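Q: A reviewer asked whether we had any structural model of the full assembly, not just the individual parts. We don't, so I'm hoping you can provide one. Inputs are below.
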Amino acid sequence: MRDLMALTERDDVISLAGGLPDTSTFPPDSYASLMRTVAVNSCARALQYGPTEGLVRLKRCVVDVMGAEGMEVDPDEVLVTTGGQQVIDLVCKTLIDPGDVIVAEAPTYPGAVPTFCAYQADVVQVTMDRDGMRVDELEHTLDELERTGRRPKFIYTVPNFHNPAGVTLSLERRRELVRIAHERELLVLEDNPYGLLRYESDPLPTLLSLDGGNFVIYASTFSKILSPGVRLGWTVAPRPVLEKMNIGKQASDLCSSSLSQYFVAAYFEAGLWYEYVQSLIEIYRRRRDVMLDALAEHYPREAEWTHPQGGLFIWATLPDYIDTTDLLARALEERVAFVPGRAAFVDGRGGSSMRLNFSGVGENDIREGIRRIGEVVREQVALYGTLTGARPATVATRAGIPAGEPATGEPRRPEPDSELAKILRLPATRKRAG
Amino acid sequence: MRHETGGGRSPAVSRVAVLKGGRSLERQVSLRSGARVEEALWRLGHEVISIDVGSDLVDRLLAERPTVAFIALHGRDGEDGTVQELLEVMGIPYTGSGVSACIRAADKVLAKHAMRDRGIPTPDFYAFNETAFRELGAAAALPAIEERLRFPIVVKPASQGSALGIKFAATPADVPTALVAAFSYDRKVLLERHVSGRDLAVSILDEDGPPRALPIVEAVPHDEDFYDFESRYVIGRTTFVCPAALPETIAERASSLAVAVYELIGCSGFGRVDIMLEAETDELYVLELNAIPGLTETSLLPQAADAAGIGFDELVRRILERA
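A: Here is a predicted structure for the entire assembly that you could use as a starting point for your response.
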């Protein structure tokens, strides 16, 4: 799959595979002006090493961002990191010995999988449905582990607009998860890169705010609200864990880029950030809607997909006879790409699912990309039907009037919340045919 | 000499265009092969022009005017005769096999038919393009095919050089899914009898005189799940043994068979023939021939050459000399 994924970066490919925010939306004039401010006011310091925990000025920005999500933290509680990804790495470095258990969602963030594997963790995945991680299954899993004398080092979750699943952990389950963490004295790594990118409904409290800072390690990033290029994220963690992570970071990279920190601090101090995030929300909401419409128009009825309230991703699941890793090879022929679902599992599941990103390319490319994927999927559905004699369900065509449907002239659009649990179903584990 | 329209041996020091990358699914392997070849060529004192093959290939070649091209491409365009044809038109000598041999080797179906016609053992097979299923009702013939080939059946795209898209069908219910997967990679697929046994690779090097089979490499998968074909080519899940521990008579038969296939397809320069040694019968069956096998640190041809006392630089020198 790695070799296939490398091809998704070709210039002639419409890539719905990345997790990229659209940095072309950032005004070049602002960038130039901010860099000039840094050069004039902080040249020598910006070019120098900085403290491992991060510049105080940057930590104040973190306090602002977390405040916008209803969390109150002190700058002293913050460790600035090189992107949110480094938080995952540092937590593993701090807590994981080979064979230790990490509990994660199924599917989980594909970028966390190689980190978990690098530390030789035993990752146990817990199913999700429309309300995020199933905490009943989590409790059952924890009981099972306990019976065999195993205790997870931490539970990894992306509660808001999950990557890749696109679903959000409900308030009730957030409370349950925090309760479980307290009762069992288990750490939870709350990864929240997209929390501010909400396109509908009211925000929910973070696990950190529900927990009060006892068992939750909080991770976030400037990547999605400003720029992944600045490579800056942060963590807020219980003091003993934070201190260990600080030592781990010293060993990894001494400190995150001072230049980036001065740039971001100047940006926040200019009072620009919140307005920019609002502009991103408008752009991404439109792109999400375009993708949802395109899916309804071009994907066959056998396909299902999530309706994210925010974030960057939609998770689509095809009939189980289609392997999305193989489908990607066919899609690349049509110059379009996505992430095969298997990348979000550690055990080979997810073979019929795909992650689709709607933030990184424009609306026309989203429409065209989904049209192309839809075409190859429909081609495979029809072929399978021919091979098995099965009669494939009627496809919602461009005309949008599938047989037996009311002739509304509008493409069929699934109910946003209908049977989302089914959408996130996991294909039964089975021996692959090849 | 692989420049089919004439030419002589390449000069001692050449401007060598290394063609690598491209848009095939094996792009990453090709980039690694190409980078390694470039380093060897530098060490050998050649001037190296590195070309990641794309839509500007002809322009680049016209501008750079190399004296010879080293083709380190794998899969579509590079291994199927396309780039070779362009180089023929441009009058640039190139390494490896010519256009017609590449076409025959890249299409497993053509290659297998040629072998069968010549009496070279290759697993029984049936091949169809997509239209046979879509328009001619070939699905109705599947039970007969399954009965003749017997399960498990291997389903392969006709033109993929790597393990991509190769599926095992253990039961009739698996066949449609395997076909859908294989058709993701090619418009033509083949269903082949699975030969259970040892997985051998015989690399061939053309030198003065007849083609020479190098020591045989055996791929030994770590787990016994023979259905998981892809893992056979993943580092850490497969051990490669060279020379393979085979009885002398079998090693000799495998080498002769590989040379026979190499000559039958009309290859030149170098190549690799993949062979199965059936456990039950000790019979050898040729699966396919790769006209441009991998040249990375972990690839089988360099391993085989090394076992024959030919280091990588020397291997590259010999391949270039035959351009």
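A: Points you may want to mention in the reply: Residues 1-11 of chain B have pLDDT under 50 and may be disordered. Residues 248-265 of chain B form the longest helix (18 residues).
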